[in-house]
Amino acid sequence: MPTSAEGPLGGLIRARRVLTLSPGVSGDAIRWEGGRVCEVGRAEDLARRLRPGTPVYDLPDTWVTPGFVDAHTHLATWALYRRRVGLAGARTRSEALRRIAAARPVQGWVLGQGWDANRWEEPPDRRALDAVHSAPVFLESLDLHAAWLNSAALAAAGITRDTPDPFGGRIVRDAAGEPTGIVQERAVELARAAVPPPPPDLLREALAEAQVEAHRLGVTGVHDIEGDEVLDALRRLEAEGALRLRVLFYPPVASLPELIRRRVKSGAGSEWLAVGGIKLFLDGSLGTRTAWMLEPYEGSRDRGLPVSAAEQAQAAMVEAAEAGLATAVHAIGDAAVRRALDLLARVPRAGLPHRIEHFQCVHPADLGRAARLGVVVSMQPAHLLTDIPLVERHWGARGAGAYAFRSVLDRGTALLFGSDVPVAPLDPREGVYAALERRAGDGGPPGGWRPEEKLGFDEALAAYTVGPARAAGLGARRGTLAPGRDADLVAWEVDEDAMREPGEAFRRARVRLTVVGGRVVLRS
Q1: Domain positions in the chain
Q2: Which distant-in-sequence residues (6+ apart) come within 8 Å of 331 by Cβ?
């Protein structure tokens, strides 16, 4: 079983290879002291310069890489969902209802996440939930862009047939005009506001457990996008000396006035916890068909919907930048991506680069614009493992601009990879596999979906390491392994096929050692 450890800030790993991502630096061993890398080279040479008492880890079947940084997470959301009803993988509404029926209310509510009705024959509705629970039920979808409520939850949220759709949101209604129990985009916020917030102690405990799981998966840092209460919880963890993930935090645009009042700027913070900027949304998601498109979804007249007015979004971006805060913009559909680029073209630079999160479907005319603007693109490769059928069904030929990793990278765009956990697993092995193989969960299509967009292993690895470090303004300290760099690293046990088939082999890899700031935080 893996164990967490608190030990000295130095050590030596003897491995099969050290993948430094630093030109001219290579070897089969790495040594660090005081939280910084000292040497990479031949094991025999490094061992001769070892200080007495320095731990030595003989891991001959491993590759050592820089620590993986997940560049798009909802860490606390995931941490709390690990304690709630999990609906991911439920193939039918009946299967989901069985899981929901077995749950007990917490703080008076039944809470869950992960349902995906795209393949269900019976749609989710409030009456189905009413049959299994009289307590309020609030269930967020897999992509977090919709929620499924029962009648008690609708009542608690004050949602009735007379409640108007908020701008950028939709209350789904039946033929008689009654709410079905499904709310989308900004309408989810109406329901979420009625859900009791988790007690601070529970949030802190959940985050502490989540970072242990992150270490087990080789993740040493995250770029986290959540609310102020999560930032406060992370600050408490850091004050206790218990924060062992590097966190770059992006609060919502609603936090902008307070950030300006406190004169917080992008990059401000410590080596463990810093503010990256603000996050705002321009559209929804593919799964709920609320991603905003230039042309209608295949076989429909629906183009999705924008969730922020252009004038308000522009004003917020400019105000933030003038205060020294970068903006991370959620844009999935090609219309939203185009608007994000148009808006960012008129925004001053801030302390860190502006970002577009997802960049999921991009018109060919827009593929090179991010690089020209100096905008960072944050993508989630593991999503394509489940999205391939949805892209083909709803976007058709426009899918050529979906998950276009090679096209983005070849145009000189700074590329970051992440998971969007809990939408997809935190496990970066899935993301690397998706970027290299581009095959769905069932193994198809042969040769990969739109294989011209595949990346090489080093390119995918850099998107989890070099890219996030540079986006955080830490390119001189992290992202590669070389003398003087922070000792954030992972030893992965890989099989003999690793060189020949790195995508498949790395997907089977196992973390043997995770080091953050020079300290071994996990050994298995």
Answers
A1: 11-67+482-523, 75-192
A2: 282, 283, 337, 339, 340, 356, 357, 358, 359, 360
